[in-house]
Amino acid sequence: MFWGFCGYFWGCVNPGCWKESEWVGKSFMVQGTASGVGKSFLVAGLIRSFARKGLRVVPFKAENMSLNSGVTAKGEEMARAQILQALAAGIEPDARMNPILLKPQGGEIQVVVLGKVWKMVPPFSLGAEISFLRDIVTEAFLSLSSQADLVVAEGMGSPAELNLRNRDLANMGFARRFHCPV
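Given the sequence above, the corresponding structure tokens read:
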């Protein structure tokens, strides 16, 4: 049994504990203290466990900074971690599972949106596009949620990076927006 907290919600994220009235969107989020601490593998394991119990479960990571990417059967580029998580769920990887992929390239960052290269930007310069990117994340999450019993979301890096708080797409801002227990 797993327990999580997000804003005003403490609750069990074991499928047997669900009550429709208490859980918006049937999702929960795993966050960690930093990048590279095992969030992706933990999420893959949880997804596999829920899938084996018969749930239609999908992974979701709103934003990922990684050079480790792969291409789906539809030709969409996404992070390998979310490809692994989709395979753990027994489903085809889909770029909506990782709608924003940031790939450092020298002094710039290649921004991949929904599996397609969008543009190159200098580091920390996506502030002007944050509304557009937030809309992409929202649409991808809601679309996946409508097709699944459970969405297991993964945070990016650390939720305590205060310098990123005003443009948070993948941690507590996401969790609050979707009433997603952490």
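The two ends are 14 Å apart (CA to CA). Try to locate this feature in the token string yourself.
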